[in-house]
Amino acid sequence: MPRRPSRRAVPLARIRLLVLDVDGVLTDGRVYFGPDGELLKSFCVRDGYGIKAVLAAGIAVAVISGRRSPAVQHRCRELGIAHLHQGIEDKAAQFLQLTRSLGLAAHQCACVGDDLPDVPLLSQAGLAVAVADAHPGALAAAHRRTRAPGGAGAVREVCDWLLAARRRARAPR
Prior knowledge:
Layout: E1 17-20, E2 32-33, E3 39-40, H1 45-56, E4 60-64, H2 70-79, E5 83-85, H3 91-102, E6 109-113, H4 119-124, E7 127-130, H5 136-141, E8 144-145, H6 154-170
Parallel strand pairs: 1-4, 1-6, 4-5, 6-7, 7-8
Antiparallel strand pairs: 2-3
Helix pairs in contact: 1-6
């Protein structure tokens, strides 16, 4: 069993930014090439609905990906994700730059990853989430694990956690 991070996760209701990887998180990790060499990706519609819901609730969403893809740019534009960072080798540095530009602290952010390049990013987040089928190294860095695998509703699951926590925090006692 992978060891869990020594730091505690922040309460879900305090999250102000959701940061997502692409391959293995927003997609199932497969890369398809068309007959002319174009890169194709498959995205889960349920994840998209969850992203739109957290954006509507006032939680910012960002994508930080190691790969560049016009398909990702199109999907982010379609969903209203304003913070898209592609071709990023040092995701942790990009995360720090992003949080500074948004006036947020790392503990106000949830990050979702699936593999070793995401571990430095997960290690900084207030809430680190690994998808169900993540690499053991990502699982070890995570506070929580989704039930759904990447590209099959894992992002929606995280969005639902965040939205439910906000509703509970605002409910009269």
